[in-house]
Design brief:
The chain is α/β, with parallel strands linked by helices. It is built from 10 helices and 20 strands.
Length: about 400
């Protein structure tokens, strides 16, 4: 097949020779042909050395490399990539129908499929495209998912309205590519959760906090727990199972609070230890009493673009400072950032500045990140986005 060819400026091929999967617009010398957004293109060095094949897109990241070898991007290609991703999740012992059927099957560059995310919830795969090329390939990817997962897969839901580049004018609508089941209960570490993949955030659940929720369970016994930005109550359920004295869940979304309450009731019945509040997080923290000795701060991304990084860091500092002031002596703070443009060092500095402003003695117990089903491609360090600290506050 003849593809348009992208030629790089001198010395701009070095990152691709190190297998970094992005070609930036500033690295391009010329383009042979007129590729449309989402087309497959071949990338060549200044000396016409083949470097890779990938999806073309208008913007700063112009090409996302699918393969550094000259291969056909066909049904066999998609099936092989999906199968490799699935085999890794099997090796991680995440594919366990009885006590865990919730995991990330495909994590973009981490699985050599840049621009694609697929989460598994029991018998449903929720697919999310972050590039036009992956949007166009969605039906081929769906066939690959069916071929690899077999009878365990009953539904494929495509959810990309909020993740595709808005300038592409694709008029995309979310919906089922396969099946149409209403069964939306998934199991994570023997806990059950309702997953709203049609209207919920991301793919319907934050799979990336699974291991951090388990750690929180360990620390919850006999503590008074406050779960800020609770969304559907994942941390709250683990705290309840861990033996917390009380668990309070806070989110500005009334719908999220409703799902939290449903998840608590499904796992623990009418347990009076739990209360929920549909309120703004900052206002709740400011007015609350000093009654909690375990607080979780897991806010949505404060910065999705580098242009707002400074404001985001101020937000993290302000949020953590209030928590440091209000938490009981001997309390434990789980604090996170899921903003990709916020580095580990930036986040840590914001939290440290917040601690210093309160004058309290704070020690690091754990440094947290995303779980193994969100693998970071060693050649693409940008894939590490989740940062977390577990802090002991005297």
């Amino acid at each position: 097949m003849n593809y348009c060819k992208v030629f790089l400026k001198p010395k701009k091929e070095e990152s691709l020779l190190r297998f970094h999967p992005w070609v930036f617009s500033g690295a391009i010398q010329s383009i042979d042909g007129q590729p449309k957004e989402g087309d497959l293109v071949e990338v060549y060095g200044f000396g016409k050395q083949f470097l890779g094949i990938g999806h073309y897109q208008i913007g700063s990241i112009t090409v996302r490399i699918l393969s550094f070898s000259q291969v056909d991007i066909d049904a066999a290609f998609w099936e092989e990539r999906v199968r490799r991703a699935y085999q890794m999740r099997q090796a991680l012992h995440l594919v366990k129908a009885n006590n865990n059927n919730t995991y990330r099957l495909i994590y973009g560059e981490g699985d050599n499929l840049p621009g694609l995310v697929v989460d598994i919830y029991a018998h449903t795969a929720v697919m999310q495209a972050h590039s036009v090329g992956m949007h166009y390939a969605r039906f081929a990817i769906a066939e690959a998912l069916k071929a690899v997962l077999g009878d365990s897969l009953q539904n494929i839901y495509y959810k990309s309205e909020t993740t595709l580049p808005f300038k592409a004018n694709l008029d995309n609508e979310d919906g089922y590519l396969y099946g149409n089941s209403g069964d939306n209960i998934a199991i994570e570490n023997e806990l059950k959760f309702f997953v709203d993949w049609q209207k919920g955030q991301k793919t319907g659940f934050f799979v990336d906090q699974r291991e951090n929720r388990k750690l929180l369970e360990y620390y919850s016994k006999d503590r008074s727990v406050l779960n800020m930005f609770c969304y559907t109550g994942g941390f709250s359920c683990y705290a309840m199972r861990g033996g917390a004295k009380l668990v309070h869940s806070v989110d500005s979304s009334a719908k999220a609070i409703s799902l939290t309450n449903k998840n608590i009731e499904m796992n623990f019945g009418e347990d009076l230890r739990h209360k929920s509040f549909a309120e703004d997080a900052f206002k709740f923290l400011e007015k609350m009493e000093n009654s909690y000795d375990l607080i979780i701060l897991d806010p949505p991304a404060f910065a999705k673009h580098r242009s707002v990084l400074r404001n985001a860091l101020q937000g993290y500092r302000k949020l953590n400072e209030v928590a440091f002031r209000k938490i009981k002596s001997g309390g434990i703070l789980f604090t996170f950032s899921c903003s990709q443009v916020v580095s580990k060092d930036d986040f840590r500095l914001a939290v440290f500045s917040a601690a210093a402003a309160t004058g309290r003695c704070v020690r690091i117990l754990h440094q947290l990140t995303q779980p193994a089903d969100h693998p970071v491609n060693i050649y693409h360090p940008e894939g590490e986005y989740l940062k977390g600290l577990v802090l002991y506050v005297e």
